[in-house]
Amino acid sequence: MSRIQKPERGVRSALLLGAILHLVLPSVARADEDPFAETAGETCLPTNIRISAQFIEVPHPVLTTLLSGPDKRGHAIHRNAMDLVAKGQAKVIETTMVTCKSSQRAAVESLCEVISPTEWDPPVFPGAVDPALNAEIAARRPKIVPETPSFWDTRNTGTTFEVEPCIWDNGLIDVRFVPEIVSLVRMDTITPWITPWGDASIRRPVFSMLRSNTSLTLLNGVPELAGILNTKPAAGPVVPHKVLLFIRADILTAASE
């Protein structure tokens, strides 16, 4: 059996040097390159999502006609509703929008605080005033002090819009959204109380709210009918006007220079 001859020392050194150069030279070449430079045909553009909500008020009979039309798709109903707005037969009562990244929760708010009492201390009898000391104060002093507010509550009125969108690989957009409109309708008098010093009646605010909390799968740039709401609480079973809620999602990609 013949023995395998080992390469001589000079040959081994040359092989080792060649292996080292083979590993080091590509790294040196890559160190001179800009790691943030775009390669040919490759772009890295930021992608955002614009979510908008639109509230359109229409008469109840008109809504029935819209929903019974031949095209039941959301964008077709939206187009017909906007035609009614142009003719003066419908009214856009609110449009709100927020732009964010995919899988990011975002919100916009336009609010005004309404502060009102919620609890009152009971009426009390004032202390007696000696007429001999001050007859004018004794004559004007009320026989009883009305209820005094002791606790207060704050309610936000205005528009709030919360969203959480997600873009899928196939281009569809899943959106969870919570649009809300709160309005102060009136102040109801619970207990009238008129004193020589002014009106001390107990009043409570009455609010109206339009709100939806759901999620949809949307096409890029195509509005969808998300719900139908009543304009304000009605005294009877028939509500003369309805509000259509439309949601739209648009994928925004920055234009490359």
Task: Describe the protein.
By secondary structure, the protein is of the alpha+beta class. It has one domain (44-125, 132-251). Helices cover 20% and strands 46% of the residues. The protein contains 4 helices and 11 strands. The protein has helices spanning 9-31, 60-67, 74-87, 135-140, and strands spanning 47-59, 91-100, 106-121, 148-167, 173-191, 194-195, 198-199, 202-211, 214-218, 224-230, 241-253. Strands 3, 4, 5, 8 and 9 form a 5-stranded antiparallel sheet that branches. Strands 2-1-11-10 form a 4-stranded antiparallel sheet. It has a two-stranded antiparallel sheet with strand order 6-7. Strand 4 and strand 5 form a beta hairpin. The radius of gyration is 36 Å and the shape is flat. The model is unreliable at 38-42 (pLDDT under 50).
Beta-strand portion reads over 45%
Total individual domains: 1
Helix amount: 10-25%
| C-alpha-based Rg, rounded | 36 Å
Low-confidence stretches: 38-42
Terminus-to-terminus distance: 72 Å
Secondary structure class reads: alpha+beta
Total of DSSP H or I helical runs spanning 4+ residues: 4
Shape: flat
Kindly state the mean pLDDT as a whole number? 80
The count of strands amounts to 11
Order of helices and strands: HEHHEEHEEEEEEEE
